[in-house]
Recover the amino acids of this structure.
C-alpha cells in the first residue's frame, strides 16, 4: 500500500491517463478522487461514470451527450459527462464492461480530445483527464477479444494496482477502528474497542468484498451493539465461524435475522426507546444502504430506481432526502 500511495502522488502531478486495477471493494473510486484532488485540476469538476450500469446506447448518450431528435426520448439537447468534466477529471469505472463500439469512441477522445454528441456531426473539444478502473484483468480481456489493445495502451500509461484486503497485513485493524469512529459519529454509537476474539476472527477472514465489506460489517456492528465493545456476535458467522465469545453465550444468535430480532426485543423492553428511536437505529441504516446500492445500479436515476423498488417516485425522492442521498437525477 505504501507503494500504491507513492504511485498515486506521482501520477497526480501529471496529465497522463491512469488505470486503477483491483478487485471490487478495494477503493478504486477513493483513489480516483485522491488523484483528482492532488492534481492541478483539483478546482475543476470530478465526474464519475459507472460504465457497467448502463446499456451501450444509454452509456454513449451519458458520456457524449445527444442532440434533440437523435432517438425517441431525446426531447432536447443534452450535455454529456465528458463536457461536464471539461477542465477537470472524468472517472470511468468498470471500463472493462464497455462494448467494442464504445471503445472506439473512447479511443478517439483519448487521442484527439474530441467527440461528437449522439445524433450530431459537429465535433466537441474537451480538456479532461481520464482515470479508468477495472476489476478484471484487461490484458486478459484483450486476449479474449473483449477489449481493444490500442485502448488499453492509451489508458495504461500510469497503472496503479490496488491490492486486496487479504494481502494487506495489519490494515484490517486500522481500517476497522477508522470505521468505528466514522459510524459512531454517524449513528450516535459508543463502540470504543474491539474484543480480541472479534479482531482475531476479522484478521483470519479472507474478505472477498475487501474494504467495502469490512466497512459494511463495522457499520452494522455499531448499529446493533448494546455495549461499548465490538463482540464476535456482532459479526456475521461467515467471519466468526464457531469462535463466538464465551462471555456472549447468552446472546449468540444463529443468523443475522435473529440478531436483529433479539436486538429489537431488548430495545422494545426499555421504556426510554420509542418507535422513532427504533426506526433510526435499525430500519433507517438498512434502508439507506439499500437506497444507496439501488441508486448506484441505476446510475442515480430516480425514475428507474423507483421502478426497481416498486414504489412511487415521489416516495423515493422523499426517502432519498431523508437519507441524505438526494443528489440524483429525476
Amino acid at each position: 500500500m505504501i507503494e500504491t500511495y507513492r504511485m498515486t502522488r506521482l501520477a497526480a502531478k501529471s496529465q497522463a491517463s491512469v488505470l486503477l486495477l483491483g478487485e471490487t471493494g478495494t477503493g478504486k473510486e477513493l483513489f480516483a478522487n485522491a488523484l483528482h484532488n492532488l492534481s492541478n485540476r483539483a478546482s475543476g469538476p470530478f465526474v464519475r461514470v459507472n460504465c457497467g450500469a448502463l446499456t451501450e446506447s444509454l452509456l454513449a448518450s451519458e458520456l457524449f451527450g445527444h442532440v434533440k431528435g437523435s432517438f425517441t426520448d431525446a426531447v432536447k439537447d443534452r450535455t454529456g459527462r465528458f463536457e461536464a468534466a471539461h477542465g477537470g477529471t472524468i472517472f470511468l469505472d468498470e471500463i472493462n464492461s464497455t462494448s467494442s463500439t464504445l471503445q472506439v469512441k473512447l479511443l478517439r477522445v483519448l487521442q484527439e480530445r474530441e467527440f461528437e454528441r449522439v445524433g450530431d456531426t459537429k465535433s466537441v473539444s474537451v480538456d479532461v483527464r481520464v482515470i479508468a478502473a477495472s476489476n478484471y484483468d484487461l490484458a486478459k480481456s484483450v486476449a479474449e477479444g473483449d477489449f481493444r489493445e490500442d485502448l488499453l495502451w492509451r489508458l495504461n500509461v500510469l497503472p496503479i494496482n490496488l491490492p486486496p484486503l487479504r494481502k494487506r497485513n495489519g490494515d484490517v485493524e486500522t481500517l476497522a477502528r477508522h470505521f468505528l469512529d466514522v459510524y459512531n459519529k454517524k449513528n450516535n454509537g459508543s463502540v470504543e474497542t474491539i474484543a480480541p476474539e472479534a479482531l482475531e476472527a476479522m484478521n483470519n477472514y479472507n474478505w472477498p468484498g475487501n474494504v467495502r465489506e469490512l466497512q459494511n460489517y463495522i457499520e452494522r456492528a455499531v448499529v446493533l451493539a448494546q455495549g461499548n465493545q465490538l463482540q464476535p456476535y456482532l459479526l456475521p458467522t461467515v467471519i466468526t465461524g464457531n469462535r463466538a465469545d464465551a462471555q456472549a453465550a447468552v446472546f449468540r444468535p444463529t443468523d443475522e435475522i435473529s440478531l436483529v430480532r433479539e436486538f429489537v426485543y431488548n430495545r422494545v423492553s426499555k421504556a426510554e426507546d420509542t418507535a422513532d428511536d427504533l426506526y433510526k437505529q435499525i430500519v433507517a441504516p438498512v434502508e439507506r444502504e439499500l437506497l444507496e446500492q439501488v441508486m448506484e445500479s441505476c446510475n442515480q436515476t430516480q425514475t428507474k430506481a423507483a421502478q426497481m423498488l416498486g414504489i412511487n417516485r415521489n416516495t423515493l425522492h422523499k426517502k432519498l432526502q431523508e437519507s441524505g442521498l438526494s443528489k440524483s437525477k429525476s
About this structure: The CA atoms of residues 257 and 263 lie 10 Å apart. Residues 275-297 form the longest helix (23 residues). The chain has three domains: 2-163, 166-273, 276-322.
